[in-house]
Automatic annotation (TrEMBL):
Signal peptide extent: none
InterPro entries: c-di-AMP_regulator
Record-given protein name: YbbR-like protein
Organism this protein belongs to: Pustulibacterium marinum
The UniProt record lists the keyword Protein transport: no
Length: 321
């Protein structure tokens, strides 16, 4: 039964009458389609906007939209073609002003640009929506900004920095819109942890990426150098200098000197003297209800660290004239 049905269908398809009918149907459909496509229609297309600023001393910092809807009138052939191609337009704002700027895409200039870049001259632009673009244009500027390292240093027992870390370059030139660059105070490196330090070190450390896409740096990394030495501790007795004492007040202290535990390299500790330090006590900070007062260091050598000021038993006797 199935074989008979298959044979009947093949016979029908191979008959001259059927072939003639199919050819006529295809031909009629093509003619109908050509007639339809030759008529005028309206259609709306989305066009992506790319902004161009040819002046190297200016930069676009903000735009209100990145695409528009364009309504065209044209032959069906033309409109069908636009569905098959990408639709991007470059908006040149080189001649625009500074700060808040409005660009009218419905003007003849930009309509002509649309026809040249995206559509054909034979098409007619009915409307562009939105027709106006708000954008912000700023002048480019540069500024040297200091670099701040974000490094954790973990030393082996008995070792420390013998001097401050050196960053090269210490400043990085930042380029970008003036409104952003002028507010920048520091540039931070990426975080890095260095462990088991016992020798001097040199590392290239990348800068953190710029927070704004319109910013650029003169370099992407800095070199950090640290000098390391074995350290030791020592104790030095320092006299106390009182400050902000009224003229009608006298102060006596017990003891006269305060022991201070300091730390540094062996060579540096051999060089320091009492005159390199200034241990002070501020009269305005003395608690009148207690005879024990605290002191603080006003000056010390940069290569010496203070471990402890042993002033727990430091007393004063205050007399008014």
């Amino acid at each position: 039964m199935e074989d008979k049905k298959s044979t009947t269908i093949l016979t029908f398809l191979r008959s001259k009458r059927t072939i003639t009918f199919l050819m006529f149907f295809v031909f009629s459909s093509v003619i109908w389609l050509l007639i339809k496509l030759s008529k005028e229609y309206r259609a709306t297309y989305e066009v992506k906007l790319n902004y161009a600023e040819k002046n190297k001393e200016r930069v676009i910092t903000d735009v209100s939209i990145d695409q528009v809807s364009v309504t065209l009138r044209g032959k069906g052939f033309q409109l069908l073609k636009y569905n098959l191609i990408g639709r991007d337009m470059t908006v040149d704002v080189t001649d625009a002003g500074i700060n808040e700027v409005s660009v009218n895409l419905s003007s003849e200039k930009y309509k002509n640009d649309l026809l040249k870049e995206v559509f054909d001259d034979d098409a007619t632009i009915i409307s562009v929506s939105p027709s106006k673009i708000a954008l912000t244009i700023d002048t480019l500027t540069s500024k040297d900004v200091p670099v701040k390292t974000n490094i954790q240093l973990i030393f082996k027992n008995g070792y420390m920095l013998s001097d401050s870390l050196v960053t090269e370059p210490p400043y990085v030139t930042v380029y970008g819109p003036a409104e952003i660059v002028d507010t920048m105070e520091i540039i931070t490196t990426a975080y890095k942890s260095i462990e088991d330090i016992e020798d001097g070190f040199t590392y290239d450390i990348p800068l953190k990426e710029a927070a704004h896409e319109k910013l650029s740096y003169s370099t992407k990394e800095v070199t950090v150098v640290g000098k390391v030495e074995r350290f030791t501790e020592d104790e030095i007795d320092l006299p106390v200098r009182f400050i902000n004492v009224p003229s009608n007040v006298t102060i006596k202290s017990f003891p006269k000197e305060v022991p201070v535990l300091i730390k540094g390299s062996f060579v540096d500790l051999k060089k320091v003297s009492r005159n390199d330090f200034d241990l002070i006590c501020d009269y305005d900070e003395i608690d009148s209800t207690s005879t024990y007062v605290k002191t603080k260091l006003n000056r010390k050598p940069s290569n010496i660290q203070i471990v402890n000021i042993k002033d727990d038993n430091f007393q004063v006797l205050i007399k008014t004239k």
